[in-house]
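Sequence only, no structure available. Ideas?
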Amino acid sequence: MRFLLRDRLFRHGSVMFIGTTLSGVLNYVYQVYMGRALGPEQYGVFGALFAIFYMTTIIAQTLNTSAARFAAELVAKGHALGGFLRGGIKRMVVMGSLSAAATLLLLGPLTRMLKISQKEPVLVLALMLFLVWLRPITEGSLRGLQRFGALSALLISSSAGRFATGIPLVMLGAGVTGALAGVVFGQVVPLVAGLVLLREHLRGTSGSFSFTSFYTYSLPVLVAMVCFSVPANLDVVLAKYFFSAKEAGLYTSASVLGKITFFFPSAIYAVMFPMIAEAHVKGRSAGGILLRALAYTGVLSGGVALTYLLFPSAVLSVFGSGFAEAMPLVAPYGFAMLFFSLSSVLMQYHLAVKNMGYAGVMLGFTLLEVALLMLSSSSPLALVRALLAGNLLLLLGSVAYTLRTLRAAPSPSPPAS
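Reply:
I predicted one. C-alpha cells follow.
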C-alpha cells in the first residue's frame, strides 16, 4: 500500500479515476435512459449519430494529445503557454467551422445512408462537431500542466450538463434531437470552465508560438487517432447500415456496455501520458511508468470484462426486457474493449516519447480490422466477433512492436543543457 501511495501514477490516476467513474456513471445512466425512452429503433438512430460524433471526438483528441505533449515540454523547459493557447484556440475555431459545414453539406446523404426520416438530429450533430474541436486545446493543456483535479472536474461537468439537459428534453418529447442536444450542452460547460481555469495563461504576455513543430507532431498523431476511432465506433455505424432498426438498437446497447470496459481505465493513460512526456524530455526512462499503467489497466478493464462474461443478463437488464436478445453480444464486446484498452496504453506511450513509427503499425492493423468488419455483416454476433478478433490482433502487434523498440532503444541520458 505504501508503494501505491508513493506512486504518482497511482495517486494522480486515482483522482482521474474518480472523475472518470462519476462521469461514466452519468453517461451510462444517460445511455440507458435513452435506450428505454427511445426504444430500439430510435435508439439505433441516436447510436449511429453519436458514433459519428464520438469518432470525430477521438480524432479531435489528436489536438488534446499534441497539446498535452507541447504543454508538458514548454513547462519542463520553463516557458509560458500564452502564445500556444491563443494560437491553438483560433485554429480550432476554423477546424470546428469546417466540420460543421461538411456535415451540413452531407445532410442528405447522411439521412439516406442511416435511414433517418428527420433532418433535425443531423443539424444538431453539426453543432456537436463544431464544439468538439474546441475542448482539446484547453483540456490538453491542463493535462500537460498535470492539473488532474481540474480535468476530473471537467469530465464530471460535461456528463452532468448532458444529463441535466438531454433527459428533460426527451421527457418533453424532443426524441433523438433532444438526446443529442444534451450532448451539445455537455460540450459547452467544460469548454467555458476550461477557459476560466486557464485564464491566467491566456492573459500572459508571452510571445507567439510557432506551430510548425506542432503540425509535424500532430500529423502522425492524427493517423493514430483516426485508427483509434475505428475499433471504438465504426462497428456501431455499420450495424445501423447492415441490420434492421431493432438489431442495430440491440447492437448499440451491447456497445454501450462494452465501452465501459474501455472508458473505465482511461484515467490511467490520461495521467501516464504527461508523466512519460516529462520523463522523455528530461532524459529519464519511462518503462516503469508504462508497465504500471498496463497493470492497472489490465486489472480495471479485465474486471469489467470478466463481469460481463459471468453475468451478461444482469448487466443487460438495465436496458429493460426489450434488449434481452443482445445478451450473446455483451461478453465478446467487453473482451474486445479489454484488448483495445491495453493497445491504447501502448499507443499513448509511443506518442508521448515521439515514436511516430507506431502510427504506421496502428494504420496497418486498423485497415485489417475494417476489412474484417465489412466482411462480417451476416449478423450482429458475427460483427462483434470480427471486432474481437481485430482488437486482439492489434494488441498482439502493438506488444511485439513495443518490445522491439524497447530492446533497440539506447540507454536514456540527461538532455544537454
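Residues 412-417 have pLDDT under 50 and may be disordered.
Hope that gets you unstuck.
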